[in-house]
Amino acid sequence: MADTDRDQEQRRKECLRKSGTLLSQRDYTCMRLRDKLLAGGFEEEIVEMTLKDLKEAHYLDDERYARNFIQAHWEDRSRTRIRMDLENRGVPSDIAARVIGEENEERGNSAEIRQVLKLMQKRNFDPQSASWEEKGKMKGYLYRKGYSASSVRAAMNSDSLDSEEFSV
User: Fold this and answer.
1) How far apart, in whole angstroms, are the C-alpha atoms of residue 62 and residue 41?
2) Most CB within 10 Å of its CB: which of 14, 60, 94, 131?
3) How far apart are the two ends of the chain, measured CA to CA in Å?
């Protein structure tokens, strides 16, 4: 029985070592690291103990991962897309929503409006000269891209695509 305990402790150390190697290369969510370790042949019980230790030592933190991801993608993705990407990477939806909400309160909507203006410009769309039908098509396109109605409305109502407030 002592050999079994020693073997388990040895596997736990191997799992911790592997986790350290993986985390030294990039940040992981708990779910992604768990999947990686299980795919590496570690037993579920050992992986769960390792993840618990890493969380307690703050080497593994889904909220930190979400904040870093948002920092990297705030200027080039819609809030909806960021939330979906975070959830697909294993960040719990409540953490993703809370962190995005906090970031939106702090930074405001101007980045998303700039993105909408850039997309409209890229498609040679001028809201001032567009017909009602053309505006509807553009709005549908932007909504499908994940942009909020308020951001789309603000961009559509801006004086021009070269608006000083949201300069592209």
Assistant:
1) 23
2) 60
3) 68
Instruction: Classify residue 163 by its DSSP letter.
Output: -
pTM, 2 dp = 0.75
Domain boundaries defined on the chain? 2-56, 62-107, 110-157
Q: How far is CA 160 from CA 12, 128, 168, in A?
A: 61, 8, 11
CA atoms of 2 and 7, how far apart (whole Å): 9
The full 3-state SS of 25-59, as one line of letters, equals HCCCCHHHHHHHHHHCCCCHHHHHHHHHHHHHCCC
pLDDT, one tens digit per residue, over 18-35 is 999 999 999 999 999 999
Predicted pLDDT of residue 159: 66
34: nearest Cα among 6, 4, 55, 10: 55
Q: Exposure string (b/e) for 133-144, b if CB count within 10 Å is 16 or more?
A: eeeeebbeebee
**CATH fold label, 2-56:** Arc Repressor Mutant, subunit A (1.10.10)
